[in-house]
Amino acid sequence: MDDITPHDFWQELHPPGSFPTDGDFTSFYVAELEDGRQLRLPIRVLADGEHALASLIVNQASFAVLDALAGQLAAKIEHFDIDIVAGLPTLGLTLAAAVAQKLGHARYVPFGTSRKFWYRDDLSVSLSSITTPEQQKRLYIDPRMLPLLQGRRVALIDDVISSGSSIVSGLQLVEACGIEPAVIAAAMLQSGRWREKLAARGAQWPDRTVGVFATPLLERTAEGRWRAPTA
């Protein structure tokens, strides 16, 4: 049951009950969508060797998985009456575009980390990511895209919210432009470490952050397997 090749991750949604969701895990974690379908996620060991996270790389997922995640996320945020979706690079752009389509929008606004010559430094913030911690990057809004966001109900979307660093950078950037998103959204809420950082930006943000599913911080067992902490 636990044998899976790396390129097979994120490729298929399995029927409810295909894999046990309690007990210990070895090479993959089983995430459940609200309709019971299951998605196998690779386990990434953290630097301390005693904890690990379930990983999702949405731009490597099959079209069927991306379509399902985008559809469920769109359903979760449509009651916020979203006018425009803004996506965080890099992985959040794939999901944001798909969610915008599910909402019936003709376009979305992609943020970027590549500085075009017409970009403005005052429309940028520093950006860090759990998957590329050694890279020093900046997050930009194309100045030409600002009229699409200002005075409108914005959904700020990333693929995964984990430590909270990337989504807080996105929030800082739109706030600097005088924009308060109606909702923050992601396919996966990875552990609960993001809550403190978002709460530091405003007490409303943890409650206005939604995901299709959530995964815990896993702990290594004495047998070298991985277990979700008990409540």
The main sheet orders its strands as 1-2-3-11-12
Cα(first) to Cα(last) distance is: 26 Å
Share of residues in strands: 25-35%
List low-confidence stretches. Answer: none
Tell me the major beta sheet. Answer: 5 strands, antiparallel
Average pLDDT for all residues? 93
What structural category characterises the helix and strand content? alpha/beta
Overall geometry comes to globular
- Name the helix and strand elements from N-terminus to C-terminus, one letter apiece: EEEHEHEEEHEHEHEEE
Number of helices: 5
| Rg result | 18 Å
Helix residue percentage: 10-25%
β-strand number: 12
Can you walk me through this structure?
This protein is α/β, with parallel strands linked by helices and 231 residues long. The chain is built from five helices and twelve strands. The strands form three sheets. A five-stranded antiparallel beta sheet has the order 1-2-3-11-12, with no helix packed on it. Helix 4 links the parallel strand 8 and strand 9. Helix 1 packs across helix 2 and helix 4 packs parallel to helix 5.
Supply database-style keywords.
231 residues, alpha/beta, five-stranded antiparallel beta sheet, five-stranded parallel beta sheet
Record the SSE blueprint.
Elements: E1 28-32, E2 38-45, E3 51-54, H1 63-77, E4 84-87, H2 91-102, E5 109-110, E6 124-127, E7 137-140, H3 146-149, E8 154-161, H4 165-176, E9 183-190, H5 194-201, E10 209-215, E11 218-220, E12 226-227
Parallel strand pairs: 4-5, 4-8, 8-9, 9-10
Antiparallel strand pairs: 1-2, 2-3, 3-11, 6-7, 11-12
Helix pairs in contact: 1-2, 4-5
